[in-house]
Amino acid sequence: DADAAPPPAPASAAAALTAALAAAARSAPAAAAALPAADPSDAFASGFGPALGLLFLGSGLLPSVRLANAAALTSLTAQSELLAQRTAAADAGGTVIGCSFWLGYPAPLYYEDVLDVAARLGEGCPALTPGRLLRRAEFETALAASRPRGAQLRGRDGSPLPSLTRGTGRGSQQPPSALAVDAAWTALSGGSSYVSPEEVARQLGRWRPEPAVFVLDEFERSLLAGRAGVASGYLILFGMQALALALFVVQPLWEAAVGAT
How far is 73 from 234, CA to CA, in rounded Å? Predict the structure, then answer.
């Protein structure tokens, strides 16, 4: 029918897009209501998973650290028992050196035992082979097999020093005191497990400036420095273990436990 009203003109693209967005906005609450509610246990699981993994890591790390520390403690205990053995100087009523209290040894360090070891470090001692690193085990074995060499030691002023190997000869056929050997090694090496020939020569030049001279003051300085190095080494070792445990096990577990609550 020509007289019928024409159909309404279509809306513009912008108007159509606006209408579609409005319809989507009106339907969004209903769609959101239809979704299942979030389970609180999911948040707990997301925090508990990493914590459980760290716990397994810690359960493997902690026994390893404990076994290593137990082995170190056993070694220290055995060494302490050896160093605590009574010596010839102790039996003879010898003189305890002045710095003995500060060394942390399980027994007093006697001047005569130190001189006995120093006398074995003379020229030709197999423990002082030049040209290669000297290791503690080799040093101890060589000293145990050696005997005091040369004339009786004297002080810097020329006065004779006490000796276990003169007079009656007591001690001349006996191995040196384990405590004195440890003290001599510590004074030479600074507490390390090996020492270079150059460092041996440098240290001996301080407290054995001449083949028949022994300077106790210089020996005590080297010994105190070496014992301080040993103590600081143990402090660093156990401190690093505690730091690693705190950073990689305790802190992540704590953060995971706090985040899960």
Answer: 11
Residue 122 phi, psi dihedral angles, 5° rounding: -75, 180
Phi, psi of 194 (to 5 degrees): -150, 165
Instruction: Return all residues near 88 (Cβ < 8 A) that are at least 6 apart.
Output: 112, 113, 116, 164, 170, 171, 174, 177
Rounded CA-CA distance 175/85 in Å is 13
130 and 197 Cβ atoms separated by less than 8 Å: yes
Going by C-alpha positions, the residue among 202, 231, 87 that lies closest to residue 134 is 202
Contacts of 247 (CB under 8 A, 6+ apart): none
Which tens digit of pLDDT belongs to each residue from 62-86?
677 777 777 777 767 778 888 999 9
Mean pLDDT calculated for residue range 158-180: 70
**C-alpha–C-alpha distance, residues 98 and 12, integer Å:** 105
Helix (H) or strand (E) run with residue 135 in it: strand 134-135
Alpha helices (runs of H) in 84-135, residue ranges in sequence order: 88-91, 111-120
Q: Which two tokens stand for residue 210?
A: 């001449």
